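Q: I'm teaching a short session on how sequence maps to structure, and I want students to see two examples side by side rather than one. Could you give me a first protein with its sequence written out and its structure tokens following it? Keep the formatting plain so it prints cleanly on a handout.
A: Of course. Example one:
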Amino acid sequence: MKFKQLAWVSATLAVMATAPVLHAKPFKWSSASDIPTLDIHSQNNALGNGVHAAIYDALVYYNSQTFKPEGQLATAWREISPTQMRFTLRSGVKFSDGTPLTADDVVYSITRAMAKTSNYAVYTQGIDRVVKVNDNTVDFIMKGSNPVLLNQLTELRIMSKAWAEKNKSVEPKDIRAKDETFAHRNAMGTGPYMVKEWQPDQKLVMVKNPNYWGTVPTNVTEIIYTPIKSEATRVAALLSGEVDFVLDPSPQDLARLRSNANLKVIDGIENRTIFFGMDQFRDELPGSNVKGKNPLKDQRVRMALYQAIDINSIVRVTLRGLGQATGTLVAPQVNGWTEAVHKRFPFDPEASKKLLADAGYPQGFEVDFACPNNRYINDEEICQAVTAMWSRIGVKAKLRTMPLVTYFPMIQRYEASIYMLGWGVPTFDALYSLQSLTRSVGTGGDGNYNVGRYSNPRMDIVVDRVKTETDLPVRNRFLTEGLQLSNDTVSHLPLHNQIIPWAMKKNIEVTHRADNRLDWRLIKVN
């Protein structure tokens, strides 16, 4: 589908503008883990991205009701040619330090997102360069037609070039390295809020940006985020009034929370799929009792692990219904999903044992198994349940769990044999998942979270074709082919799509989003 001539003026924020709200309030919220960084290009993490959206703006951002991109820092855009899009910047926008936003900041920020140390190259795929036309206009020059450019831009936020240069943060912090840059612990954007204080793993405080360009209906003047790892402690904080909102209430507490007259729970299916990845690259797995070869390279072994997982039991018991069993890597809201690719291979431990025997492992084997313990709904409990299921077919998974902030850098250093990952799709298009998770590791975002280093020549062809295909029916066929190829080759072990409940005080008004993030412009504390 080719871009049409577009000149969208973002009316939504103007419509949201209302008479000043008199009763300004703080908004106190919590979830299990802290954000990994304040650097907007360092780690592509959904929780962090949601918080970054309070501080930094993008050229376009999703409307929380329609999930269509609408203007944020851009007021209009149009196609100059199939490989050139022109964006007009909103006039009068200032960063929180009072300096004006210019085209130089946009060019710099998109270029920064393409840096070698950036974890956001998947959002810049297809972009060759950004060119300044004048102080209020930029052109995006593509490598070819890009049918999902606007969706990608919703996650590419804009940073001050002068601020980054002054504070020696020209390039993003490398997620794999321990050294920090100023932008890791500090932030300065054009968004509705600015950082007052961040004590990692303890508290993040944001206050209203006095130089914010927009007028929005929220009456929240201060946002206080407190990560609380313990499920019981998080719920206790909500019940006692210490926090107003919990992003991830535990499944076992939901009935009690729903029945509390002072609270409310709203929920919906998230566009996030939980799965296991497997090291299909090393010739020998560290810590395994199999020497001289890697069992996970054998498709029969991967299928044996798959068919030994009783996902219906996990959804019913471990998740208490907060999951939708799936056989593919994307949720139903994502372009490319079909009922056919969604269908799982059957749970069949006896078939698993035969597959292992056929592969040369009649007694099973030992393998490293890594999981986060504070990122997804009951993540550690799911991994414990699967460890028990695999033990019944002879696979002795040596489970190790760790918090988000250390887990993600670890798996991106390729230090896990089997690992859990949950993959949301900010673009609502399966290219984002296929390119990140199944494309051979390369440049420009290719395989940026393919940390098992799966590689299939046909998959690479499919993904590369989808990047530039503009005929919508043809493109969708390729997306579905890629998802089916992932299933057929057991590139990963899909588990479930998350169903996300949000728990809050009765006086809190929020808009539930499929990407499990708060729209800071729309929160009200009554």
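Q: Perfect. Now a second example for contrast.
A: Example two:
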Amino acid sequence: MSQTIETRPGAVDPAGVSALVFFVALAAVWGWLFFILTGEWEANEQYSHGWFIPFLAGWIFWQRWTTRPAAEPARGLLLGASWLVLLALVAPAALGILIAGAYPDWRVVLWGLGIAAFVASVALTAIAGGLPWVRYLTFAYFFALVAIPWPSQPERWLTQELSLLAAQIAAWVLPLLGIAAMCHGTTIDVGSDVLGVDDACSGIRSFQSSIMAALFLGELYALRWGYRIALVVIGLFAAYAFNVIRMLILSIAVANGGVDALDKLHDPAGFAILIATMGVLWLLCWGFQKIPGSQQALAKAKIQSGIGQIAKSPVFACVAAIVAMALMVGGSEGWYWWKNKNAERAPAWTIAAADPQSGLADEELGEKVYEMLRYDRGFQRSWRDEGGRQWHMIFTEWEPKRMSLHYAQPHLPEQCQRMIGREIVSKSELRKAEANDVTIAYNLYKIRAGADEFYLMYVINDDRISGQEVTVERATPANRMKAVMAGRRNMGQRSMQLALVGEPDAEVAEQAMLQLLPQLVVPASEASGGEGKK
């Protein structure tokens, strides 16, 4: 049984101190992960709900803490197993923190850190309060995992498939409403205007927030697990259905009022869909609680101060976890500082400014593209050569900072071209080219757009060099680990997409692009490039 600790007036309550140490240990275990995730929450709109997760998880923990059962600190096998788990987590957690320092958007690593934080929290809880606490407090740790982005491949597949399905549904329904519409990938031709599913949202963005809301409301109403699972599933279907309805409304608005109507209705419609989804979840909770036996019984045990029975093991384990986290984070930061203090940088390059006498002009990429890519500088340019072939170039640049790689890497032609209804016919291996003493790396794509085909040179480089050799590597796990061992992080990024339409031969198209590079790619010190968006 737990024992009550009596203290003299004005004396420090050891139980209260041990509880505080327990809280600090949990904060240390989750704090660095949440800090890493802030970049994802800021950069990726579909995970912006993540800003609320730490506060909601803290609220859930506190509500359960104030009604927790009496502590039964771990002993024997449970105590030994908990300590063994904590010790086993040290090496993988340290490696994960080191990798996330360079690649804060590597989803596999983020999930590894999330699982480590969850397991460590359960182990600390077991040591402090035994199985009763583990059963009662673990949901708060589980809820915190909602803040982590889904793994990239499943998310990418789901996003693309849902977007394609949403566009097809809209293109099927709109003619029934008397509006001519045709679907091309994730874009819909509505009269003389084009509506992108990204403009109307595919439903994947609402998936994240609906899961968070369903789990939180299920806890708020103390529903049993079967009802909570039903709440999550129904919430997912509701989120997608409402987004399809939103897309139909926006399509009708575009058909009647043009693209200006889209700009006026896009955000209000999104807010209305969010409210509608939350309303459905709340109504479900209200209905579920009317069903006898649908709610869990709260512990409501007599609560002692602190963590109940005082023992050296819980406090020592919590202090050890705090110290271990400090050493792992400090070691990671020290590693990158040491590796980068004398690092060389590749010559910064940019795109030469368009010659006004040639009639060429650089144009901004648009506010929506900027909101998605968050580049420091970007523009596009179109022209025809003497042979009548059509050229189009897009250039984007990110200055060295923590999330530069995150913004630059994910928007590959494999995703972007398919999302606008095009097909990747072929892709070359990674190649190098020289232009004005600048080494760039590129892949050559052959892309089919309806009955037409064109070639696309996709270039993305970072600023770091090793000796005199520019580091040009694919973003494979092995190469990412090489970058971590070399201490490469916070690197500036530059991306160029150069498309050539009207040249059927791949070799001729590539040679034409390579011959054009010296006119485009120049050291940053020699040209300021296009105006773009700062």
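Q: What should students look for in example two?
A: Point them to this: Residues 168 and 183 are 6 Å apart (CA to CA). Also worth mentioning: The first strand starts at residue 181 and ends at 184.
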